[in-house]
C-alpha cells in the first residue's frame, strides 16, 4: 500500500513534468521564430512620451538612433536594468546560452560598471542592452526613463531581489507614467526556494516552498509596485539556470537541457510575455489618437 502510494506520487510528478515539456517547445519555438525574423515595422513610441516630450514618434526614434545608436527598425531590443548583485549578467548570459566564464559572456561587475550601456546580440534580430541600475550618484533615478530612452526599446526587464530600492521605485513610477512595457523579474529564484526548503529542514514539499517564496516576495514588492502606480502588478519568478538551457540562439534543440528543472517557476510565461509585449510594440499605429 505504502509502496503504491509512493508510486502514485512519482507518477503524477512525471506526468506534470511531461506536460510542461510538451508545451515548452512550441511556445519557445514561437519566441525564437519572432526574434529570428526582423521586426515588420518600427517600434511604437508610447503616446504619453510623445505628449511629455512634445516630439513626434519619428523624432524620438531618430534621437535614439543618433544618441544611442539604437536600431529600432531592424532589431528587436530588450533592455535589462538592475542593481549590481541581482544577477543581471548571469541573466544576459543565460539568454546568450553561455556560462559566466565564457569569452562572449557579459561580465558581472563588482560595484558600478563604468559603461553607460553594453549591447549583446542574442540571436539574429534580437539585441539585449545592459544598463546600470538607477539610484546611484552616476545614475540618478530622476529622469532615468527619458535619459535612457527606455520607451524606444521593445521590452524593459527590471531585475530585482527581495525588494525594490528607492531608486527602482522611482523608475517604476516613471515607467508606469509613460506606459512603457516592463516586466519586473525576481531573479535567482532557485536559491530563494532552496533557502525556504532549508529553513523548514526538508519538511516542506517543493510546491509549498515555491508558494511560500512567492508569498514572501509578493508581500514585499507588490505593495511597492502598487505605490508606483501599477494597479495589478505581477512579479515574474525566474532562474537563469533554466533559461540557459533554452538558449534561443537559432538552434532547434530548445529542450536540450534540464527540462525538468526542479526549481522552474515562471520562466515559460516570462518568455511568453516578452514575446507578447514585443509584438504589441510593433502592432499599433501611431497616427490615430495621439491628439498632439
Ligand atoms: C503573488 O501575486 C500574484 C499577483 O501578482 C498572484 O497572482 C499570486 O497568487 C500571488 N502568490 C502568492 C503565493 O501569494
Automatic annotation (TrEMBL):
GO terms for molecular function: GTP binding; hydrolase activity. One of its GO terms (cellular component) is membrane. Residues 1-16 form the signal peptide. The keyword Hydrolase applies. This is p-loop containing nucleoside triphosphate hydrolase protein. Residues 74-263 form the IRG-type G domain. Keywords: Hydrolase, Signal. Gene3D superfamilies: P-loop containing nucleotide triphosphate hydrolases. The lineage of its organism: Eukaryota, Fungi, Fungi incertae sedis, Chytridiomycota, Chytridiomycota incertae sedis. It comes from Gonapodya prolifera (strain JEL478). Belongs to the TRAFAC class dynamin-like GTPase superfamily. IRG family.
Amino acid at each position: 500500500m505504502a509502496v503504491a502510494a509512493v508510486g502514485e506520487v512519482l507518477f503524477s510528478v512525471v506526468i506534470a513534468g511531461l506536460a510542461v515539456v510538451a508545451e515548452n517547445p512550441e511556445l519557445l519555438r514561437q519566441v525564437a521564430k519572432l526574434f529570428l525574423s526582423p521586426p515588420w515595422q518600427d517600434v511604437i513610441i508610447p503616446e504619453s512620451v510623445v505628449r511629455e516630450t512634445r516630439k513626434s514618434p519619428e523624432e524620438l526614434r531618430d534621437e535614439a538612433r543618433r544618441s544611442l545608436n539604437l536600431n529600432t527598425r531592424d532589431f528587436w531590443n530588450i533592455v535589462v536594468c538592475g542593481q549590481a548583485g541581482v544577477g543581471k549578467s548571469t541573466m544576459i548570459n543565460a539568454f546568450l546560452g553561455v556560462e559566466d566564464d565564457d569569452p562572449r559572456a557579459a561580465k558581472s561587475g563588482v560595484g558600478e560598471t563604468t559603461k553607460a550601456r553594453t549591447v549583446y546580440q542574442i540571436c539574429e534580430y534580437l539585441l539585449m542592452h545592459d544598463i546600470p541600475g538607477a539610484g546611484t550618484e552616476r545614475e540618478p533615478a530622476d529622469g532615468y526613463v527619458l535619459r535612457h530612452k527606455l520607451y524606444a526599446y521593445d521590452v524593459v526587464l527590471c531585475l530585482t531581489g527581495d525588494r525594490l530600492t528607492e531608486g527602482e521605485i522611482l523608475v517604476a513610477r516613471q515607467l508606469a507614467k509613460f506606459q512603457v512595457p516592463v516586466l519586473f523579474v525576481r531573479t535567482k529564484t532557485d536559491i530563494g526556494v532552496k533557502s525556504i526548503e532549508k529553513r523548514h529542514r526538508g519538511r516542506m514539499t517543493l510546491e509549498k516552498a515555491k508558494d511560500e517564496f512567492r508569498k514572501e516576495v509578493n508581500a514585499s514588492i507588490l505593495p511597492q509596485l502598487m505605490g508606483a502606480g501599477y494597479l495589478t502588478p505581477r512579479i515574474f519568478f525566474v532562474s537563469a539556470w533554466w533559461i540557459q538551457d533554452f538558449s534561443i540562439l537559432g538552434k532547434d534543440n530548445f529542450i536540450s537541457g534540464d527540462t525538468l528543472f526542479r526549481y522552474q517557476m515562471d520562466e515559460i510565461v516570462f518568455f511568453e510575455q516578452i514575446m507578447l509585449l514585443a509584438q504589441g510594440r510593433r502592432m499599433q499605429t501611431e497616427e490615430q489618437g495621439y491628439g498632439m
